[in-house]
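As described in the Methods, two query proteins were run sequentially through the folding procedure within a single session, without resetting any intermediate state between them. The first query and its resulting structure tokens are shown here.
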Amino acid sequence: MSLPNHIIGENKYGRFCVPKSSSARPAAKAILAGRVWEQGTIRFVANNCGDGDIVHAGTFFGDFLPGLSKALQPGARLWAFEPSRENFLCAQQTIALNDLKNVTLTNAGLGAREGIGSLCISLDGEAHGGASRLVEEKAAGEVYEAVPIVALDDMIPQDRHISVLQLDVEEYEQQALEGALSLLKRCRPLVVLETLPKSAEWHQQNILSLGYREIGEIHHNHVLATPDVDRRVIEKLRSMNDRWTERRAKQRAARTAAEDQDGVS
């Protein structure tokens, strides 16, 4: 399949193939302006992968790939998953642009088991980009793509050690985690989730029962760890989140002041 219409962006981590249809999405706009999207999340995952592998799901066009790839130790791998065909093709190009040799990219969404899912990719002609989401029921006006679904327990070899599991799968975290329970029990990785599982009962019975507890947040992502996590990881996470929250508050204050000034003039 040919490469979709795209724009090449660049930041301090590398070069990126941004799908033109998603160029107005926040992550794409940041990259095209030379900035890093969710720099704190990239840094946290990169700083805590040790000598193990990383799982990164919700790859979009690969804005996390160069930063995470370069953080890995020799022999370690980055396992990336992206269900959208357009985003996947652009992420492949991002890998090529940066000559990333330690990335395994799969064109699939994560779920409890292998199957086919419905991915909502646009509404009224506006692409969802990285916010494309797997749904159980379709709605009028939305455009869907049939995509393969895989379970992490089927995709990650038993002899690989996963240090960090990072999921940005648009409220499909519970299903993705359900397909990774053996991996969680075997590797006990740090877990970074955009959203917690929808069912508190399922979360308690399947994740918290393994000893996982939320130790903090970074860029609104929930970070979970088992009791044996190094205390310094928690302290560093809190420090990073405090700095990020402070920057966000200053940015909001600056925007408010500018708007007030516009109102006066």
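Immediately afterward, the second query was submitted; its sequence and tokens are:
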Amino acid sequence: MILLSRNIVASFLLIIFAAIFYLSAKANFNQMQVQTTATSSNQRPPKTYLALGDSYTIGQSVCEYDRYPVQTAKLLNDKGFHFCDPEIIATTGWTTSDLQKAITNYHFKDSIYDIVSLLIGVNNQYQGKSQSEYKDQFTLLLQNSIKLAGGKASHVIVISIPDYSVTPFANASNKKLISRQIDSFNMINKKVSDVYKVNYLCITDETRKAYADETLLAFDGLHYSGKEYGIWADKLAVQIIKILQ
């Protein structure tokens, strides 16, 4: 009888130990799953941003960290999006033709980008290029931008041309004519953008505020300051977040 009782107790203890071992193993397995998921999330490749343009995109007369593509990427990273440093193809003085030549000869870091922005045209206006030429060349640039976004037109953002007529640089020029011509070129890039169903960000009216606020201008009296580029970056980041969500 005593021997039977001992066997019952031993069996009971064995069951308890087995249950404890099972629960412990299950807890460890669940913890490993959580860690694996977190690691997988952290190892996702960073998103890429390609910015195409001219002096405004390269940030003439401001520090690198004040460029609007750089400020935009920082804002997105601060909001939890994992972006690598933006890739910028832009040079002061470039027209649509110059940008197209640069793209043709450029060795891209990536074949497809998560976001592509395009801001070009002020030098077409300044150099007296025709609007018909601008339309044709801008269309080609936009087609290339969509290709660089992996064929996703919804991941391309066209930015309107700033109005430099409000800057000291234009004091000796016909400011009203410059402003009207900028509007005409913007009407072209807006219509082309609508045809290709890409996103459009109008910052032209914002740039005209520099007439009454010199802090929005760089020291050269023509280009914009980091403060102004920060305003563009805020607006651009909002659009990019909508695209990615």
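Residues 46-244 form a domain with the Rossmann fold fold (CATH 3.40.50.1110). We note this only descriptively and draw no conclusion about the first query from it.
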